[in-house]
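thread: overnight batch results

M.L. [08:02]
morning all. the overnight job finished for the chain we discussed friday. pasting input first so we're all looking at the same thing
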Amino acid sequence: MQSLKELYKIGNGPSSSHTMGPKRAVEIFKNKYPEADKFKVILYGSLALTGKGHLTDYIIEETLKEYETEIIFDTDYKCEVHPNTFDIFAIKNNEEIAKWRVYSVGGGTFQIENKKELEFENIYKEESFGEIEKYCEENNCDLYDYVCKVEGDSINDYLQEVWNSMQKTIQKGLKTEGIMHGKLHLEKRAKKLFEKHIENEDEVTKQNRLVSAYAYATSEENASGGIIVTAPTCGASGVLPAVLYYMKEKYNFEDSKIIKALAVAGVIGNFVKTNASISGAECGCQAEIGTACSMASAGATYLLGGSIKKIENASEIAMEHHLGLTCDPIYGYVQIPCIERNAIGAMRALESSSLAMMLSDDRKVSFDVVVETMYETGKDLQSHYRETSEGGLAKKYCRNKYYNIDMKE
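M.L. [08:03]
and the structure it wrote out:
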């Protein structure tokens, strides 16, 4: 596994694989070939099919704004390695001087074909959660200590920066009103949800309302291109911050404790990213929201004093009940059903944590097994259920005029 700095990335939404990843790769390519007078980018697979809604062309044009840039959407090419594939060409005097094939694999991370030297180093040596648990037992440490032993105490400074950014995003989102960009004309609802008065509101209803409001706040900022933290992706960035923000307020946890929970959640997200996928284009939304829910349930369980076994069980429960979840964003926007799914994922994370704290002693399924299952399930999903907007809710919404008589173009 790579550093948690490669999991938690601070940047603009709405999509880590469609905006963050391409932007980072294009920036490196541009700096490597400054002599070019023109660049050409060809987008394939999910990048071509949902790139407009995800602002892929916009972010590439912004990154290369000082150059003539040509962007081509090739929706017919069959991606064999990864569905988020694109080619970038450097051109000088109308002649190609360099070409990279890039795979945007999720969470803002990318791989360049035949360029292993540009990939980030794996600093965590354990390859299964069972091995991580064994390491912690042998070294008498918890998952937070494990992170510090591998990355050094300086990781705390980075996680503090991550937490500060998460809090600012929620606070901004709770104050923002208006309509989000795009032809869905979707209203921002975090502020309304946060301020909603419910007479004789019980604790469960209050918890669900607040957690949902925090998840909406981040997700709406993400959908609007605001600053968010990949946790593990942009599309699922609202789940973990919502849970941690709620728990900080409810239990008065210090930031130092929240940072430790971020580290624990990071181990879970990093494990899925390394051993399976966090890409909706590769494995459906189970890879994004499912992983985010596992991360949040792990963080919550740690804050409640749960052992490594309880943390693992909470993560397993959270992932297991997202298996098969498709990625079908309407019009390619990270809005419907994405924003609502973040709220549901945050509420489910707290439920998974609560259940694990009560019942983890007799569990039968390991986190290793459920992650492997998620990956295989994702590979079995037909392509139109994996971030192409060609199936599922995206297809039905656009075609069913009866239910969408007020749809605006």
